[in-house]
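Hey, I was hoping to borrow your eyes for a little while. I've dropped the whole record in just underneath, so have a look:

——
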Amino acid sequence: MLDIQIFRDDPDRIRADFSKRGLDESIIDEVLRLDGRWREVRFEVDQFRKARNSAARMISEAKKKGDDEEVKLILSQVSSLGSKIEDLEADAQRLVSERDAIRLQIPNLLHEDVPIGESDQKNVEISRHGNSPDFDFQPKTHNELIEQNHWVDLSRGSKITGSRQYFLMGDLARLDMALQQYSADFLINRGYTLVQPPLMMNRRAYEGVTDLSDFENVMYGVEPDGYYLIATSEHPLTAMRMDEVIEQSELPIKMVGVSPCFRREVGAHGMSDRGIWRVHQFTKVEQVIICKPEDSWDHHVELLENAKELWDSLGLHYRVVDICTGDMGTVASRKYDLEAWLPGAKEFKEVVSCSNCTDYQANRLKMRFRKSGGNEAVHTLNSTAVATSRALVAILEQYQASDGSVTVPDVLVPAMGGKRALAPNQ
């Protein structure tokens, strides 16, 4: 959520941002109208309170003089002040609630270098990494490979739960666990603290990290408790310090979260989204940093470099993409994606999202750090390290052989007990 002071001091900055995104600016005017009216009401409340306090002093003086008539006169003049203050405070609360409900829908301010474009077709490729696999045969899709080798049972997963659910079997399940351990260790060795978060969040915490009006249909609700299953460990890790004033000595806070993630994935999807690419449950290793504002852009680079070096170490071919205005979403100020090459599908597809959310989430979460001149909102950043199901797809398609076998990336061999190829599941 944007600080209200930006609306008061520099609304044109927000309007310029809306123009880049192609959004209707009337919502900004409504925030300003409600905020202006709220301040007027608060001023009236203050004036009535001053009058009531002044009357109290006058009554005290009149009582000391024994002037009962003066006491009665003053009481008659201020008798209605209490109810007026109560009514105005109710108006003020309604106005600020309406104002802030709209503020929750207003996206973060974009970094000035974000490419302008109306859709993901205008995202800008920055670089390519690793060698594109050169096959002397027609590469299979991951769907064909998992079916041939019986590594995933989609039909039985669907039978016991529903579509896009699955059983991960044999060596592919073991490779999933190897990816989790390797990726977590990779970041622990870079000074990140391993955190296993709760898998459910309450509504207030979730509203602190994302725009629920846009994101709620992605998540699973847990009733009657009113919780949500987490869509990524970024959300609980970011929200864990909500309503806190953090000491400067604690910053930056660097965490690596490992958790199952749950997404409804509603809507129609293409052929390459089938199999285990776009599923309702998957495991993700996530990077999260909470830091001082002046350090956040350096940490954004750090998160991106961590992700690149991790994917480089897996020997996978991918590209880095700068996300444009039309594909940005609500929370991030700037975002980069890593997109892995899928030779079976013959396309690059997103495997990592790396975002600087500046103070947007911190304002919603009331998360500040202590400063001598007054507490200030922290900045929050996040980046995927590995979403294991998507990394498995990239490995299957890039490390496949003509007979349908798949080689294990060298760095994962130790966690696979020395196995250098995935055995078919019998």
